[in-house]
Structures
1.
Amino acid sequence: MSLSADILRSYRAPRRVLGRHLSAGQREDRALMYLMLACFLIFIAQWPAMTRTAEATDVPIDAWRGGALVAVLFVLPLISYGLALVIWLFLRPFGPISAFGARLALFWAMLAVSPLMLMQSALTSVFGSGSPVPQLFGLGVLAAFLIILAAGLRAALEAGRAAT
């Protein structure tokens, strides 16, 4: 199945999508690819807001993009791995979950909502950052992230129980 089709399917049946990814075996390269692709799309999603901020300040757009590049493509992956570790440690008492399953669930949730973040960025560039439209859409993005993450973690717990 293609990546874009899996992302769209994640909005309807996230547990099934992640369960299928987990059944393909522990592939750390695939999980890292999901994370880096999500980080790249998140970086691109920040461009309209950075452009508006650069126009409002004396700081050039290249400085804003350089800072965002370092933050999103170098720091965010490290934070994501740390958060996945915390999630795994938190869920261990609830059942047999692999650290890979927790990582994949988090990274997939980030990738699945990155198109929504691009849409939120477009709404921000049209309506402005102070408008309630992009802010309400942002709450929807957060809700989608949490739902996909929870479903993915549930699939990882189920996969761990099936393996034991």
Note: The chain has a mean pLDDT of 91.
2.
Amino acid sequence: MSDKLESLKAEILKKVREYQNTREAESKGFDRKNPKVPVSGKVFDEEDVATLIDSSLDFWLTAGKFTDMFESELAKLFGLRYALMTNSGSSANLIALSALTSKFLGDSKLNDGDEVITAAASFPTTVNPIFQCGLAPVFLDVELDTYNIDTSKIEETITNKTKAIMIAHTLGNPFDVKKITKICQDYNLFLIEDCCDALGSKFNGKMVGTFGDVSTMSFYPAHHITTGEGGAVFTDNPMIKRAAESIRDWGRDCWCKTGCDGTCGKRFDWKLGNLPHGYDHKYIYANVGYNLKATDMQAAIGCSQLKKLSNFIKIRKDNFEFYLKFFRKYNNFFILPKIYDGADMSPFGYLINIHSDAPFKRQELVRYLESKGIATRMLFGGNLTKQPAYMDKKYRVIGGLENTDSLMNNAFWIGVYPGINNEMREYVVEIFADFLENLDSN
């Protein structure tokens, strides 16, 4: 790049930072006359915006140098060999499970009809890949206080068709990693960790996402860091990495990066499938794949956001603990959250789980909060077996899913994301207290 272009870029980025700082200074703070406490949201600064503009000036519109940098930093953060950026966490889940069905894995691959154990209380795209890959979900109940899969029921569920467990760390609360990894080892099952809500959560000092054969992450604006749309697949297994990369990149057999040719050194000297010898390797497809790549501009934001991750996690934990301290005073109304020994939660939200015999219903409390500007969310899809999308699908259910139904009917969550400041959270508990101390008049 010429000196003139370098000078122009520096001037542009200086103005971008000035713009963002001015915009932030002019933004209104929390207004009690028109209160808004979001459940989630993106938190960004002038460096995030400047990095985005920096990448856009190259006008490299697909994956490129920032993607390489982001993937490298993610792999380093997790202490894993491979991280592959995707266009969403949902796509990451699809890629992760699809990779385990790839012929690249030989005899160990998953086959049509194999069963995958999962939780009935979940986000749909943790479960959808099981259907999409021609596999069979087996739904288990969850615990009322951790919201994670009930591990006591897993072993009785396993048959000779059971080949994998695919579950999330719900709301950032690590599932029982010790028990589940042992079950997977004992029964030779794949473990797919959905960490989309759990970036920075740990178990015995290790990041969640490092215990499974393959794991996933989301960078949607609601999550711990954001790239807008975006996600990632993680693994230490080179064959799973190759399969995941192929499925993300149209299913191609070629492993050249975008814009590169001939990495293998024999681009026109392959003989695969029933194609003629010498057919261009860039157009040989080994897997049924998609185009699920992200753009370099998204990756650039991720590179900048990663620098703020530790502070973001600290604020999330502080907000969670603030709410937990408040709700302990009302444990006659609520089932308080629990984490396992050895778990260190990087919370996505604070779940409010109302006792079934409480003198009020969830709908009453949620409507009151929303009327006061406090945003709420259900625990994702509730009991997924009752969702219209799955009414005609084939799956197996273990037990009556009583706890899942209870969460579906009695639970919701509020935000703990870094955009929630002291004034906002003080307002939140004030509104809760108003409702709970004046139940007769609500």
Note: The mean pLDDT is 96.
3.
Amino acid sequence: MANPRGLNRRDLLRLGSVSFLGMNLPSWLRSAAAGDLAVGSAAPIKSCILLFQSGGPSQLDTWDLKPQAPREVRGEFNAIPTSVPGLQICEHLPQLARVAHRLAVVRSMRHGMRDHNAAATETLCGHTPPEGDVIFHDGPNSHPCLGSVLSHLLPARDVVPPHVALPQVVSRGGKLPGQGPGFLGARFGPFQLLRDPNATDFGVPELSLHGGMTLAGLEHRRSLLRRIDQQAQAAQPSAAQRSVDQFRDKAFDLLRSDTVRHAFDIAQEDAPTRDRYGRHKPGQSLLLARRLVEAGVRFVTVNSIGDPEIGGGDDWDTHYQNFSILRDDLLPKTDQAFSALIEDLDLRGLLESTLIVWLGEFGRTPSITKAEGGGRDHWPDCFSIVLAGGGVKGGLVHGSSDKRAAYPETDPVSTGDLAATLLWRFGLDPAELIYDRLGRPIRAGEGEPVRSLFL
């Protein structure tokens, strides 16, 4: 067989383990020949931290300011220079301006979903929901989130959860769609944290032994349960029973793991580090994300929720008081915590192997509404996201928007492209097929990787 695309000895050795990447030999060779895998470029990443800015941040008030636009478009904030000549961002992001040479800003994201539910599915799953804008909740055949897709396609690492979501589930009168495993099933769902890492009594009771239980006692109980299960399965084998066994084994492994317990023990961090991230929920959530990546967790979703005591809402859904909410709450916390995460990962040698993705489900309208305090409504036609680490070309701006940041002017990027990029950076083929509960094949990543973002 001819050597495809001039693969070297190291590449060929990888063929012996491609099954662990969820690909068979023919699909790996097709992908390598097409240049789809991260071969000969930046090494595949080990982890991803997805910073989901629930509600939809305004592109015009963060990463894509339009100083020359009329006031009813540009708003109240000024643009400031960054560490990258020619790149300007919002004045309320000074620490991120200082590390802009490590960021890649994409100013040309777009999709067609105008409701939070459908838009969340677009961005968190990389697929358009079949129901369109009328989706209300996840169903048994919904698309899985990207963390679940990775859990399905890549092998588990020891006993650490492959996907952790924190510090809460995003809810809008019910759980926002796109946060779960969808048709892949609960086995591939995230380990969901429901506590504030900034709380003085923060802990993860699910990982604690209660009622005087010891590790020896836990192992004894596990042994007894296995004997009972073996007898039950011998009498009547059941797929449902096998699924229960998998969940129970995973729970036992987590309870026994010092690595997992230590990763969640944020109190082990020194005071200066905790102060650097910020003594608030977003800051301590990002610090906890760094600890989890350090422990080997592959995918961490951090759901950003604002302070409901700041008037007008509790997240980036700024229909009212857009500028006061951003100025007094969301932007300062984002600036502090996001910049701290970048610098901390770099200091620990983890930045190049960890991709950070900052995004919301959409952007905000170019024109400011007359709502109380001035608001911006939903706008999926053009918005900005930011990437850092993971082999990203720092100081890069990809794509551009028109004079009102209303539509992409160059190099538009779809949510499917973003999903494909993420899978590609993990060394996977985005065209790899996964199957829904009806057995229908679906591409893991619907779009094409944006390779120009990376070294």
Note: Confidence is low (pLDDT under 50) at residues 1-35, 239-244.
4.
Amino acid sequence: MSSKDPLDEMTGGNAAVGSPEGGAEVEVGHLPVMVDEVVETLAPGSGSLQIDATLGGAGHAERVLDASSPDGRLLGLDADGAAIARSARRLARFGDRVVLRQTNFGEMAEVAPAAGFGRVDGILMDLGLSSYQLSDVERGFGFRAGGRLDMRFDTSRGRPAADLLATMAADELAALFRRYGEEPFAGRIARTIVETRRHTPVETAEQLAALVERAVPAPKARRTHPATRVFQAMRIAVNDELVALEAGLAASLLLLRPGGRLVVLSYHSLEDRIVKRFIASEQRGCICPPEVPICVCGRSPNLRSLGKSRTPSAKEVTANPRSRSARLRGAERVAA
């Protein structure tokens, strides 16, 4: 992650507002990030088919369905079964205009056609965590909420984060923290974890956050918790997020009809670089060497960029601090 990307555990896709009675989730209080910009870029119309590939709290999906009334339809995907259940309640008023599937968006190329969304007008990928996930003490996504270090979106698949911390060698952990968290003190943190687990298993978010804080030199001024990059790296590794992102982007070329639009909200530079390079690559035409007099590669552009990336307004960041590192990129499918 680059230094220009604000970092803390608050980085994520949707904020949720708690009840005044103290603690119950209020789904109507969900704050989808850059929702006006998302709807403007997708431009969903009546009768259109849309895919929300990362439902989260369903805030974006709700607005897209409102904008595509009376008969636009939406396929909502999420690897998190709890997110699917919450979304089903929130979107119930739209009836059969909504189809929900619990799946990772990396599997969208197979899941969408089977659900009747083989050619669509819009695809949204919001790559942030929701407030519900950050506050889930059963999975340990965030060090403020704490809890067991699981970090899986789909708890029926893969290995929990605690398992990786218990079994990976110090050099493997350091490489993971560098690759997925761009953590400058990766080696020191990895050695501290390995030394600690010899006598005490590292099984909770609180433990991991404390170990990182102990291993990292204290700066004169701290903008974010020192464990932020490590938590990001562990979550990406556990869920194989960057591989899923590349698969989801590739699937968008198969699913979008000409004129259909792709919108991606990313929250750190690793994701944003993948999205930026994908759009740049797919809007190129001929890639023959300059010395070749006529095109022999036969390559045509697949996408048209919808302009420069966009970031949240100052007003939105004030209302929803979790939005501050968001970056929106959009592209339109062109005819082959």
Note: Residues 241-255 form the longest helix (15 residues).
